[in-house]
Backbone:
């Protein structure tokens, strides 16, 4: 079988540029160029449908080789999080005391907060500029 036919066959089976290059002993860039010139740039493997969206029960389309989805889109994910806040695993909760009003507050995902609100930030900024 000639080299070009073998590249097409392997690409249609869903093989990556790197694995084809290794199998045929050719440069990855040569494989990539050939595939893009001949319309083989995208992997030909078909997505798999296995699970349902946690929020709306639509069928989820999983891309081979990537992390499995739980939600069909961002709005479903946000709606589910709003509906079940206790089920969301929040590991990055930080506790602070505001530098302006000394009020204790929590921040999710930002460990560098200094002020509890934009109002306190504005007050602190005005004091520093005076």
Residues:
């Amino acid at each position: 079988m000639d080299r070009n036919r073998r590249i097409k066959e392997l690409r249609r089976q869903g093989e990556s540029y790197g694995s084809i290059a290794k199998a045929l002993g050719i440069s990855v860039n040569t494989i990539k160029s050939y595939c893009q010139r001949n319309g083989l740039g995208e992997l030909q493997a078909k997505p798999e449908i296995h699970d349902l969206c946690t929020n709306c029960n639509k069928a989820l389309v999983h891309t081979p080789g990537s992390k499995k989805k739980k939600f069909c889109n961002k709005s479903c994910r946000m709606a589910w999080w709003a509906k079940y806040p206790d089920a969301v695993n929040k590991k990055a909760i930080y506790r602070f005391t505001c530098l302006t009003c000394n009020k204790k507050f929590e921040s999710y995902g930002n460990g560098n907060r200094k002020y509890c609100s934009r109002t306190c930030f504005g007050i602190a900024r005005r004091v520093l500029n005076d």
Q: What stands out?
A: The mean pLDDT is 84. The longest strand covers residues 48-52. Helices lie at 3-12, 17-24, 28-37, 74-83, 118-129. Strands lie at 48-52, 59-62, 93-97, 104-108.
